[in-house]
Design brief:
Oligomer: heterodimer
CATH architecture of chain A: Beta Barrel
Largest interface: A-B, 8 and 7 residues
Distance between the termini of chain A: 26 Å
Strand content of chain A: 35-45%
Shape of chain B: globular
Largest sheet of chain B: 7 strands, mixed
CATH superfamily of the largest domain in chain B: Type I PLP-dependent aspartate aminotransferase-like (Major domain)
Number of domains of chain A: 1
Number of helices of chain B: 16
Order of helices and strands of chain A: EEEHEEEEEHHEH
CATH superfamily of chain A: RNA polymerase II/Efflux pump adaptor protein, barrel-sandwich hybrid domain
Strand order of the largest sheet of chain A: 1-2-3-9-8-5
Structural class of chain A: alpha+beta
Radius of gyration of chain B: 26 Å
CATH architecture of the largest domain in chain B: 3-Layer(aba) Sandwich
Structural class of chain B: alpha/beta
Order of helices and strands of chain B: HHHHHEHEHEHEHEEHEHEEHEEHEEHHH
Chain lengths: 123, 503
């Protein structure tokens, strides 16, 4: 299962017809302890790059952008109730939303694991 | 006897003359009072059964207990009157005592806001004089005096811009506002409040607005740009004229966040840079008191293009008399405050201007910039400036000098508290990793600056010599150790539970 990344530190991976989106472990570490998260409502649609969610840590509040265009099909309410999950398991249990892509080819323009690792280390 | 230490506290919990202080509800009681009244005559109850049937549980304290309570609380606060404050003018800078003396003159201090205008001609004249100074210093033809804080002034400026755009019939078309990624958070917040969508302008490698990227984003749907100059990285936007021209060519307005006007007052007139609207934080530039977030005053200067959209009220001089204009013209976007603004701040700001003169105001800006560059030059031997070259009134460092030490910006800041310094601005601007933004202001002596720099240099050396554990434990000498910010944010206790019996 391939995970792709954006320059804004979101990750995306396929889950059946949908795509699961979260923020990278690197981003979670940079943010420090996350204390609040706001996720979009199911049914909303976003274009790639739109503000989609907000993550607030003890250090900063950051926007999370839609990594691909599409419609929100599911949100992870567990992570809203317990934002600490983002620091514990950013790449797994702390996924944010599941999207139905309107243009699945957009995902090909994102970075793969190796490219993201290189990007995160040098930025 | 055990020696008192963090592990073996004193019996009272006090640390020498640092006295612990509980809440007034915890130290007070129903059996005490600061004032004795004779027992009331029984005049009967005319409250129709709505009279109180039990005590409400307010704590009673004797007069000396009350005085001590508030003095002890005040001693827990760090103040500009106690030492240098590297957060700088954003929060507080030295308030000359002359300002305070003038503001306390009964003719200014004791005026009710609804007094007949014929009785308060002097106060109206003062507002008019201050407005004149602000217009002269900024090179702008108009000023709205009523906004009550910098962010309120931003709102004033952006509402004027929105009104101007609507008057041109372009309200539906021009919906975007551009702001640099290093902008103060209030800028996008203000734009959104006014119904605009906000887009970030990236910074170039020198920490300034990327002009080419800005030009790409401009179009006939852009209402305005919001740029701070000097910017939040403490750098002068060298391309400011080109930025203004590009925005004007695209039919948009230039809102300048005037928070950092204190670095250029008397040197540069924003009107000459092509600015259409700018708020002025009187506390930042003209030394009005601001500890703890207020009281604010954010007069907003407006270019000729926006003048007619200014809010009421404002002061005009007609036939040798001053009038407060309360009636709104057809163009004015309305009213932001009940009265004319923050009179106590106006009095202090004008006292500051008149005691300094134009040459003095200019020297304030020059000294603020000189002091910041002195700090930058001294600290860069051990710390890492975020950008090359000189700075304006603020010296910005990143956390590269802490790389691989195990010490982070927050630990460095906590260790500063043990050395007797309030930390500088941390983790802002967001464009710089682990940012430490130091604004010494114009009023610190070389001796104070040297001691501050020596303390920071010693901390930087200690961090690099592997003392991470000591930094993680700081502060050690403060009345409270490091607080659990995460728990405070995740599980906040928002209600105090009373302990006083209410029988």
């Amino acid at each position: 299962m391939t995970i792709m990344y954006t320059k804004d530190h979101e990750w995306v991976r396929a889950d059946g017809d949908l795509y699961v989106v979260g923020i990278s472990a690197h981003a979670a570490e940079q943010l420090g302890d996350v204390v609040f998260i706001e996720l979009p409502e199911v049914g909303k649609t976003f274009a790639k790059g739109d503000d989609m969610a907000v993550v607030e840590s003890v250090k900063a509040a950051s926007d999370v952008y839609a990594p691909i265009s599409g419609e929100i099909m599911e949100v992870n309410s567990a992570v809203v109730d317990e934002p600490a999950k983002i620091n514990e398991d950013a790449m797994g249990a702390a996924w944010f939303i599941k999207m139905k892509p309107s243009n699945a080819s957009e995902i090909e323009a994102l970075m793969d694991e190796a490219a993201y690792k290189d990007f995160a280390e040098n930025s | 006897m055990t020696t008192p230490s963090p592990n073996h506290p004193t019996f009272t919990g006090n640390k020498a003359l640092q006295i612990e202080e509980a809440l007034s509800f915890e130290i007070g009681g129903l059996d005490r009072t600061g004032v004795d009244f004779p027992p009331a005559e029984d005049l009967g109850d005319r409250l129709g059964g709505l009279g109180r049937d039990s005590e409400i549980g307010l704590p009673g304290l004797s007069e000396p207990e009350t005085v001590r309570h508030f003095v002890r609380l005040s001693q827990k606060n760090y103040a500009i009157d106690m030492g240098p404050f590297p957060l700088g003018s954003c929060t507080m800078k030295h308030n000359p005592r002359l300002n305070e003396k003038i503001a306390r003159l009964p003719g200014f201090a004791d005026l009710p806001p609804l007094a007949p205008q014929s009785c308060v001609q002097g106060a109206l004249e003062l507002i008019d004089m201050l407005a004149h100074w602000l217009k002269e210093l900024t090179g702008m033809p108009a000023v709205a005096m009523s906004p009550k804080a910098g962010a309120h002034g931003e709102l004033c400026g952006m509402m004027a811009i929105k009104a101007a755009i609507e008057a041109r019939g372009e309200g539906a078309k021009r919906t975007r506002v551009l702001a640099p990624e290093s902008a103060h958070g209030t800028n996008p917040a203000t734009a959104v409040q006014c119904g605009f969508t906000v887009e970030e302008i990236p910074a170039d490698a020198t920490g300034r607005v990327d002009l080419a990227a800005l030009k790409e984003k401009l179009g006939d749907d852009v209402a305005a740009i919001m740029v701070t100059n000097p910017n939040t990285c403490g750098l002068f936007e060298r391309d400011i004229r080109a930025i203004a021209d590009a925005v004007h060519d695209a039919g948009g307005y230039f809102y300048c966040d005037g928070a950092n006007f204190n670095a250029i007052a008397g040197k540069v007139r924003p009107g000459d840079l092509g600015v259409d609207a700018m708020h002025i934080n009187l506390h930042k530039t003209f030394s009005t008191p601001h500890g703890g977030g207020g009281p604010g005053a954010g007069p907003t200067v407006l270019a000729a293009a926006l003048e007619t959209f200014a809010p009421v009220p404002f002061v005009v001089r007609r036939d040798g008399e001053y009038h407060l204009v309360e009636t709104q013209s057809a163009e004015s976007f309305g009213r932001m405050t009940a009265f004319h603004g923050q009179m106590g701040m106006f009095t202090r700001a004008l006292a500051y201007m008149m005691s300094h003169g134009v040459d003095g105001v200019r020297q304030v800006a020059e000294d603020a910039v000189l002091n910041a560059n002195y700090v930058l030059a001294r600290l860069k031997t051990e710390m890492t400036p975020a950008f090359d070259g000189y700075c304006m009134h603020e010296a910005l460092f990143d956390d590269r000098f802490l790389k691989d030490t195990g010490v982070e910006t927050i630990d460095f800041a906590k260790a500063m508290i043990d050395e007797g310094y309030h930390p500088m601005t941390m983790y802002f601007p967001l464009v710089v990793h682990g940012a430490m933004l130091i604004e010494p202001t114009e009023s610190e002596s070389k001796r104070e600056l040297d001691l501050f720099c020596d303390a920071l240099l010693s901390l930087a050396k200690r961090a690099k010599s592997g003392e991470a554990e000591a930094f993680k434990a700081a502060p050690v000498y403060a009345p409270r150790r490091r607080l659990d910010e995460t728990a405070a944010a995740r599980k906040p206790v928002l209600r105090w539970t009373p302990v006083i019996a209410t029988e």
